[in-house]
Design brief:
Length: 317
């Protein structure tokens, strides 16, 4: 009985998942490749200046890492933990938010040029759509890839871009400092976190009508929606917590304390593909917290490099 209890305890605290977590270490210009089954960093590879957000290819084999301090995207073979190539974005500068589309292309916000860059990872071809806004920082894309939504910190709005016509459709007023954003998996609702006024705004992704405003934790800097579409989560930078919101009712369910400390520098959050765990970048401590969503327990602390921020998750080991 004791052995069975011990085995159960180990299974809960250290889930054996054949998957890989990557994090951009913006303070040392590296990317960490972390084996989720063991919780160990199996490689740390050089990147361009100030790596931030990470996108994983649809087949899970390749990671694209932006260099926010330059105008490039670096590509890495995940299984082999090797750098593959670099794509120069030309006049499009300071890439930050990035999404790898199911159809194969990449979109990345290029803040320094107030554009959204459309990148072909095979040919290296780069096109762009002007946001006409300041601080075009994060991006999310509709499931049918018809629209992209970009938060503009300096302009206090969200640009809605038509990816088929390569033009801007509208700007949504979205609070004092909109940054984190996510679409529900069905593409019907856009959720935007306003870090200056500690709230989340919900919009109809088609009509662009505002549906709700929800109070959350202290400085919600990132926002993610669970794979099943039931739960929205904000990463609250100044109090080191997560706010969990029921998507259907748009009501706060509870708060999970991750560190409870401003010094942790909590930023990026990312769901595992099964939705049962969420990874939280504690940028100030060069580590990633693995949180069990159902219980709120901190399962493990995973090692990373200085300034660990952007996260990518591949189901492949």
């Amino acid at each position: 009985m004791r052995l069975a209890a011990l085995v159960l305890c180990l299974a809960v605290s250290t889930p054996a998942v054949a998957a890989t977590l990557l994090t951009g270490n913006k303070a040392e210009n590296t990317v960490s490749v972390i084996d989720i089954a063991t919780g160990k960093e199996r490689a740390r590879l050089p990147t361009g200046p100030m790596p931030h957000e990470i996108a994983i290819s649809p087949d899970g084999r390749t990671a694209a890492v932006v260099a926010y301090g330059a105008r490039q995207i670096d590509f890495y073979d995940i299984a082999g933990a090797k750098h593959r190539k670099t794509i120069d974005l030309g006049t499009n500068q300071r890439p930050h938010g990035i999404v790898w589309l199911a159809s194969g292309g990449l979109v990345a916000t290029t803040e320094g040029s107030s554009t959204l860059s459309l990148v072909d990872p095979l040919t290296g071809t780069v096109e762009s759509i002007a946001t006409g806004a300041k601080g075009s920082h994060m991006v999310t894309v509709a499931p049918d890839e018809s629209r992209a939504f970009v938060t503009n910190l300096g302009s206090r709005n969200v640009s809605v871009l038509d990816l088929k016509k390569s033009e801007k459709i509208a700007d949504l007023s979205a609070g004092a400092e909109p940054e984190g954003l996510a679409l529900t998996p069905d593409g019907r609702e856009l959720w935007v976190a306003n870090r200056a006024d500690d709230s989340v705004m919900v919009f109809d992704a088609t009509t662009l009508d505002r549906l709700a405003t929800i109070a959350v934790g202290d400085m919600p800097i990132r926002l993610a929606v669970s794979p099943d579409g039931r739960t929205a989560v904000t990463s609250n930078n100044l109090d080191g917590s997560l706010t969990l919101i029921d998507v259907a009712s748009r009501k706060v369910m509870r708060t999970i304390e991750v560190s409870g400390e401003r010094e942790a520098g909590q930023v990026t959050i990312l769901f595992a593909t099964d939705g049962g765990r969420i990874y939280v970048a504690e940028t100030g401590r060069a580590q990633i917290a693995e949180i069990e969503l159902a219980t709120g327990k901190r399962l493990r602390t995973l090692p990373a490099g200085a300034g660990a921020d952007g996260l990518g998750y591949s189901p492949l080991d």
